[in-house]
Amino acid sequence: MEPKTKRQREAVAIRDTLKPITEKMKLIGYRKAFWWSATQYMSGRCVCRECGHEWKRKTDMWEIDQTSVDANMLKEIGATHKRRNRPAHCLKRNARYENTICPNCHKRVQAYPHRGGTYGTDQGYFNVLECVGDYQVIRTFEVNRAWRHGQPAEYTFVGEVCQRYVDMTKGDVACDLAKNVNGLKGMYSSWTYWRHDSELTVKQSYSYGYHGYPSEKYNFPCMYIVRSLHPLLVRGKFTSLPWCKADYMIALLDPHAATLLEAKQVALFELYGVHGGKELWPQMKICMRRGYIVKDSSMWKDTIRNLQYLHMDDHSPKYVCPADLKELHDRTQRRRNRLEAEERRRQRLEAAKKEEAKYSKFIAKFRGLQLEGKDLVIYPLPNVESFIEEGEAMHHCVGSNRYYEDHTVLIFSARDSAGHRLATIEYGIKSGTIRQCRGVCNSVPQRDKEIRELIAQSRKIILSTNQQKTKQYECR
């Protein structure tokens, strides 16, 4: 894409004047582009991917599989089992990795469970920040890491892949220069195929979804090395941020965002400048006055909005700066869920009342109909409100899907002598058959056979009641 605007032409002119990075920057970039890692086996053997050292360590990453427990029990009683080749351990659901320290290189590594393979390659990126005039340039470099068990990791510097020019006077992204790329790209994705034989040319800046998260095609946040910063970024103490992002630089043009960053409120700074939380600035000032550091900005934001929904004091330090944020969030969310459920129920009842007259005219034919068995009573739902209550009690959709509007079926409720609900039955009047018989959460009821037999035995009663009531109604 040829440069068309003035700022694009300026970016292309600046591209050739940027200094190459030094060997020291490359060594620092290797550390910033990758996390130190290790491979953990079920036997307790752990291999460092950085230096290749192997040692034994105790781990909670693996647990005994229930299949092996059952197999040992069968073996004790003399029985045989077919699944002898099943593994004796399984990976815990929440154990993605464990932090440990390699005794050889003394690096803090993340031990990942072994899933096959003793070698591999990783792709990583790091940024270098340079200030040229009014532009803050974000330069992104690609590096690769190759590791093999028993050998030190090998790092390779590939080259510069993209540049982003942020206009600090206007507060926007002036231009993106990048090499041609084939495939998708994320922060640490191995699906990127850069065309390193191409040059840095002007690219169209746009965002797309990557694994469900918004990501930018040619620029993405990663750890960075500072060569020179724009004066506005120096005043905002940009270097306290762990990641480099153009949105953070633009946000620092707002004095409120700069104040949050100077107060070390990194999470609130991102909420205010990037995620549209400017309406919560009064609550943020309370946190700064109290010295309360917010670590989880999304949970804190949801808590404040819950307080506003519940008409509680959202300017009280007791709620804005809670000692246990999660406990307050869960408590307010439960109250909000109850109120919203009551509001939805009220709206459903108001909508159902419009159909009350039609359903009353239809069900008048079957009022008084009751099928009785041994500790079992089955009768049609008398009004529309009973549909809502039945659906809420049995956790199915007989009320929300408006079964009371279908006048070709009868909806029965089966209960025991104590009044406990057992099942909800949909009965076709013309066909004389049961279409559905559902228990709690649409399950098969425990007394399904008894219910079906009782309705089958009462088929003539239901038919005669329908015909008789219909004739009497027509005579009137």
In short:
The protein is an alpha+beta fold and 476 residues long. Helix content is 34%, strand content 26%. It has a domain at 356-475: Aminopeptidase, CATH 3.40.630.
Describe this structure in words.
The structure is a single chain. By secondary structure, this protein is of the alpha+beta class. It has 15 helices and 22 strands. The strands form 6 sheets. A 6-stranded mixed beta sheet has the order 14-11-10-9-8-17. A 5-stranded mixed beta sheet has the order 3-2-1-7-6, with no helix packed on it. Strands 18-19-20-21-22 form a 5-stranded antiparallel beta sheet, with helices on both faces. Strand 21 (421-428) and strand 22 form a beta hairpin. The longest helix is centred in the last third of the chain and has 29 residues, at 325-353. It is elongated and about 95 Å long. The N and C termini lie far apart (83 Å). The model is unreliable at 81-86, 185-190, 207-215 and 469-476 (pLDDT under 50).
